[in-house]
Amino acid sequence: MARVSQEHLDARRRQILDGAAVCFARNGFHATSMQDVLKEVDLSAGAVYRYFSGKEELIAAIASEVLETVRATLEQAAQESPPPTPDVLVPRALATMRELRPATLETGEWLFPRLMIQVWTESTRNPALTAVLADGYAKIRQAWGGMAQSYKDAGLLPEDADVDAMARAMIALVQGFAAQMALFGDIPPQVLAHGTRALMTVGRGR
Fold first, then answer.
1. Which of 23, 113, 117, 168, by CA, is between 20 and 30 Å from 175?
2. What 3-state DSSP class applies to 110?
3. Contact, 158 vs 101, CB < 8 A?
């Protein structure tokens, strides 16, 4: 029997994760059954369970992947000189997610913001998922902290600025924009940029 290549295994895993994400974003985690996932990805139960034991493992894998993508984006940005300011970085972080995970629902709506809401909701009742998110957010806080430090190094922030507090605020800003997308519809990238830039100028007009 010919051995299955790693490329094939990775592609199959990607197929399952993407299909599950569509199901969760469309109907919610608890209203989605594994049978729904099997139908979405057009695979047998054996093919899917070879990779994931059930819905809980699927949603944890999806959440981990999203958080890792955001972390990598921030760490790469921190290496730029000069570092991109928040009004550039916030739209870029969401644009990167859209580029890497462009799937939409039947309505044309980008599914990632809705999926994010589902993950947050499930984490309030699922300790295992809470642990996954806590680990991922700790890494993102560290990455945002690295961005804040790069602002200090470039002379864009005062030396006494609290980099961890800034990291938390920037995470909240990205989450807030994503939540608005999920609840009220898409937000053009220029709105993210203009809004963040306006926040950065508060107090300068005095």
1. 23
2. strand
3. no
